[in-house]
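G., the chain you wanted modeled:
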Amino acid sequence: MYENAASYLDRCREMDFSELLQFIEDSLESFSEPDPAYDRPHTEEEFWHLMRMLREKGDIPKLEPVRWVYEPSEKLKARRAKLERLRTHLKNAHGDPSVKKRDIQQMQERLPGLEREVARLASEERSDHELRLAEYRHQANDPRVRVVERVARTIDRTFRAQPTGRIQWQPLPSGEATPGKIRRHYKDRLRSEGRLDKFDENRLDKATELPFVEWWVPTEGFGGFDAYSIFSFAHTEKVLLECPIYGNAAYIIPSGEESWIDKTKQQLIDSGEAQRIPHQGETWDAKVRQALDLE
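Predicted structure as tokens:
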């Protein structure tokens, strides 16, 4: 570790969860101008050490991503393929005079056992997935878990190689990324422009109901890119590009942060990767959830 680590680690050990969280966030904010003499962490190793300490103080587990849509295991897929092959052989055998009755009888005897095995495996896997998903949802809804995940992402982003292009998006501080504050911002902006009737609060409600970890806005200001913002999640690299102003569709960006952080909204849309979801009908929000693997 950095040679000054011992000077602040003792203090950190005495801090409670909230105090240590604040210390880490303050250290990340001042990281752009590190002073070796300053009593702060300066290396990636030191920051992750503090994060482990933070999780221990808050008894907060690491949020392990869980697919929201059940996906059969390779073992189950292989058993299902074997079952389908047996059914096909048995069906063809009945019309083939060259197949002995004894062989048909053996296939008929094997079929129920294989069907039961496939049904058992599928039931066990679905039950296990539902349990893990329920635990993930429980953890993800804990405000402390979400803030720790957000800080972990900030550390990862701080030490990751930055894109060569100009950064176009920035995550809002946790205190600003609240539905109430964002709603007031939209209303104030649109009221000043005489466009308050264009504000669709339902879109904002649907977006903030999702288990997002970070809320991103254009670096040029929250009014930039016609007020689009990005919601990122722990369970998938996909992100939601959303705007609660009539006349703007929602978009799902299927790739990781490094592929969109230096792109404008229009560049993302023109890339061909973005999946456009118009706010039409009663099922548009279900389409958004499905595209994000949430259904």
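The chain has a mean pLDDT of 83.

Shout if anything looks off.
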